[in-house]
Design goal:
With about 120 residues, the protein is mostly beta strands. The protein is built from no helices and eleven strands.
Length: about 120
């Protein structure tokens, strides 16, 4: 399984970005997916997740600004980010959660930088 994250970049405060994470394989729809972020020197933190059925959860600091979604036909999970703040600056990673005894998988990360 490979996860390819993309869509990061440099954006001004208040701007928007949409991150994408494309997964290989034919069973994407079975798995919950998540987005995490990490600032150098800090632990990786959870941002949002979406179940195989489409139910979503978002971390409190991003609620109302970020939206996770998925397109099972494209094997892709998205993170729409708006009203970006400098504290959103981080490397963003996608994660495919394990199912049963199956292992989890992580994408390679995409840098998001919000300039003030």
């Amino acid at each position: 399984v490979q996860l390819q994250a993309s869509g990061g970049g440099l954006v001004q405060v208040g701007g928007s970005l949409r991150l994408s994470c494309a997964a290989s394989g034919s069973t994407f729809s079975r798995y919950a997916m998540g987005w995490y972020r990490q600032v150098p020197g800090y632990h990786r933190e959870w941002v949002a997740s979406i179940t195989s059925g489409g139910a979503t959860n978002h971390e409190d600091s991003v609620k109302g600004r970020f939206t996770i979604s998925r397109d099972n036909a494209k094997n892709t999970v998205y993170l729409q980010m708006s009203s970006l703040k400098p504290e959103d600056t981080a490397v963003y990673f996608c994660r495919r959660y394990g199912l049963g005894r199956e292992r989890e998988y992580w994408g390679q990360g995409t840098q998001v930088t919000v300039s003030s």
